[in-house]
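Q: Here's a chain of 95 amino acids. Please give me its 3D structure as C-alpha cells.
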Amino acid sequence: MTDFAEDKSKATESAELAIDEVRALVEEGREQGYLASDHVAEALQDIELTPDQIDGIYNLFADLGIDIIEAIRRRAPRAPRRSPRRRSSPSSTSR
C-alpha cells in the first residue's frame, strides 16, 4: 500500500470511529469476533451515511478482523405432523 493510500485509510478509520454506534459495534465485534449483519444494519439505521461511509465501516470491520455473518433466523417450532391413519378395508376384516 502506498503512503497516500495508508494515510487515506487511517483518515477513513478515524472518521468512522467518530460515530458512537460504530465504536460500540467495533467493541462488540472485537469481543465476539463477529457481528450479525442485521444487528449492524439495525445499529446504523438512524444515521445518515453515504455509500462511501458504509463501505468504510465494513472495511474497518474487515481490517480489525471482525467477521460479518448473516443472521440465522430461528423459526418457531412446528407441531409434529401426524401421519394419516390407514383404514382397514371392509373386505379384509370380514374374512
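Q: Can you summarize the key feature?
A: The longest helix spans residues 3-17.
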